[in-house]
Amino acid sequence: MRKKKNNIAFITPLFLVFAVTMFLMAAISFWWNEVIFLCELAAAIVSLVLVIIGILNIKRYTTLIISEATKSIGEDGMQTIENIAVPVAVIGEHNEIVAANTLFRKKLCSSSNPLGDNISEYLSNGNPDTMYEDNGADTFHDGKWYIAFAVKNENSSVIYFVDDNKYKVNSDEYINSRPVIAIIAFDNKEELERETEEGKASQITVLVEKAIVKWVSSTTGFYKKTNNGRYIVVMEERYIKQFIEEKFKILEEIRAIKINDRMNATISIGVGRGGATFKECELWARQALDMALGRGGDQVAVKKSETYRFFGGVSKGIEKRDKVRTRVIAATLSDHINNSSNVVIMGHRFSDLDSVGASIGMWSAVVKGLHRNAYIVLDRQQTLAKSLVESFEKAGFESIFKSESEALDIIDDHSLLIIVDTHSPNFLESKAVYDHCKRVVVIDHHRMMVNHIDNALVFYHEPYASSASEMTAELVQYLGKDTISRLESEALLAGIMLDTKNFVLKTGVRTFEAAAYLRSNGADTVEVKRLFSNSIDTYKVKYKLVSDAEIFNSCAIACADEDVPDIRIASAQAADELLGIENVKASFVMYPTGKTVNISARSLGDLNVQVIMEALGGGGHQTMAACQLENVSMAEARERLVSIISGLEVNKTDSQNEQKA
User: Fold this and answer.
1) Is 654 within 8 Å of 312 (Cβ atoms)?
2) What SS3 string covers 436-495?
3) Which of 218-222, 256-260, 439-443, 637-641 comes out lowest in average pLDDT?
4) Dmax of the chain from CA atoms?
5) Radius of gyration of the chain (CA)
């Protein structure tokens, strides 16, 4: 529906009708009352004069606009505009149409009169300024595509509407028909075959394949089963757009298939779209699938160029009980260590008991098991595991901890860097140490981030593990005999207890096996408990944060007013405490350090806090994550956090994030 005319010049003739009406009323009142007659006659004369002046001004304005506009295209005025083979309109100072040729009336106005319309009514974006750009403005009007070009004069502009419909339709069809490759992995096929009878396993596999066939059949594409529970799908771009809008309902359909009372079938999908060739799309699909599996599975990762989008991630993941990969990794790692001049071990910034515990475990395995020199890079001023570091220094091992500058002095071309408890270069204890080491090994359990270390000789990533300490405890068993003593065992056990909240969260069979191994090596649970002890000041700060917390959308949010000693430890513990409140599914504790606002996030698994922290530039795990916001106030940081929480369904962990590698 077209809007009403918005220029007073084109409704002035209505005032002429009004003036004539007043003359008629004056004539009638002549026989009734002489005074009223004279008043109405005077008003009618004034109205007529004003209307005449208005009409003359309109004529003068229109003539000026048209004359000025047609100077650049010919000397025959409107006849030149009429003869142009594309729709043309002339607009005035206020973007009102003052003239248009027959083609404009026919193609864009259905032969109606456009005079007085604002030109923005004929532009899809409603912004006339875009017409003056070099490429004009794409506009869709009355079922057709045009490119609107404008030539600006002093008081007017000439607008040309070039029919671009054929090219746009062909371009859209080209884009929509571009090839897309998707690779599907049946996440828990091995668990299905191990824990169910052969006949039932075959039935469930058939149900999963039937759901995949139904999903692919809704497109014009096809699929091919490869091996080991994987399928490759080829389809067109138009269908991926539809699936993205639906947030890949196929995940829910597969999840509805129950394997047993405690397990549902899940799949992961890696999608490669927008590649120049089929080969490039297939490469991106494999990278996307690796990313989806590295984030815990049961989700879709869509990769386009350097950008990822994620959907799903509801399931908590199924623990992999097979230790074959651990033995293979240990053998490979042993070879690299033996071929190194020395080994440098490093965790993440603001290292905690898991990071330091895993570092100590690897140090012990390298030194005692493989008889190589090893050191741990640590910032003593910022570590959250001071009690553990102090206990080792008191035991006479103070020389194993090196600062960044000290580590740089001992690194050479044959040094090996082992990174534990993180896989992102942005979160390392020392970026300089990482940059100087040519040979790198990564051992981590956090869900895969887009910006991850991609040059590692060994990338031992196990998102199903409870902690880096658990992974290290398994590795050291294959790196020689008597590799860890009581002290190292207690350090590793402390790391496991920290990340599992004393064996409550993300605890599997292998977690208890690792703990049992450490206990058999002399780990004393009482001594481990002492490593978690706090000062009275830290205790007070923790409970002040808990008491000041607010509940929003089943999420507890607490904010520290100022930077106080041990605020990082207190905030992390406060986040854990808040999960004990009824109906709280996630907790967020915010605290300042200088101009940075830090957020510690925790959940019991009902809400994926990794997704929320990634949206703020951080990362972590499904139940434990964090981020840092630079140069923002506490109020601004809280507002951003609340905005993200508001956009989530609290009872689900469905994510739709977009990140760049």
Assistant:
1) yes
2) HCCEEEEEECCCCCCCCCCCCCEEEECCCCCCHHHHHHHHHCCCCCCCCCHHHHHHHHHH
3) 256-260
4) 126
5) 36
Which amino acid is residue 270, in one-letter code? Answer: G
Q: Is the pLDDT of residue 1 over 60?
A: no
Provide the mean pLDDT of the chain.
84
| Contact status, residue 622 vs residue 653, Cβ threshold 8 Å | yes
CA quadruple 415, 418, 424, 428: dihedral positive or negative?
negative
Which residue bears the tokens 């290290």?
A: 472
Strand partners, 591: 598
d(CA 158, CA 82): 13
Alpha helices, H only, 386-443? 386-392, 404-410, 431-436
What is the DSSP code (8-state) at residue 130? G
pTM over 0.90, yes/no = no
Phi first, then psi, for residue 318 (nearest 5°) are -110, 130
The more confident residue out of 137 and 487 is: 487
Residue 3 has what pLDDT?
46
Q: What is the pLDDT of residue 486?
A: 93
Residue 657: closest CA among 307, 268, 243, 289: 307
Q: How far apart are the first and last CA of the chain?
A: 45
Instruction: Answer yes or no: is pLDDT of 622 > 60.
Output: yes
The span from the CA of 563 to the CA of 567, in Å, is: 7
Residue 144 sits at φ, ψ, to 5 deg, of: -135, 155
